[in-house]
What does this fold into?
Amino acid sequence: MNKVLSIIFAVLIIGGAFYYINSDSPKTSGGEQENVPAQKPDSQAVENSEIKDGIQYITITARGGYSPRLSNAKAGIPTKLIMKTNGTYDCSASLVIRSLNYRGILPNTGETVIDAGTLKAGDTLRGICGMGMYNFLVVFS
Ligand SMILES: [Cu+2]
It folds into this structure.
């Protein structure tokens, strides 16, 4: 019986230690996402594109920078960027996409759809904030 109890205690202590480690780590990033450490391109590419009625929509969030920083998209399909803001009061709301001749101020909260046309394999779309601090890249293949 004592053996069983000590095993239960050990599990609780180890579990508590893991919980402590996991709950401690997010505190270092104070809400802003610009301090996310650089990651390998592979791990940055997340599923943020969707093809609906023959149009490819790529969703990018602007707030304290852009996320995801790197997106993969399909070439040869009419493409639109959906720029999402949610309480965005930093300069990532001021967006420039030079290859599209786009320059605009996104609303503090909302969605802005930007027509990107149909791109070829190897083409990229790079968005930068008005000050050139933050950027994102969409790679077409
Ligand atoms: Cu900026």
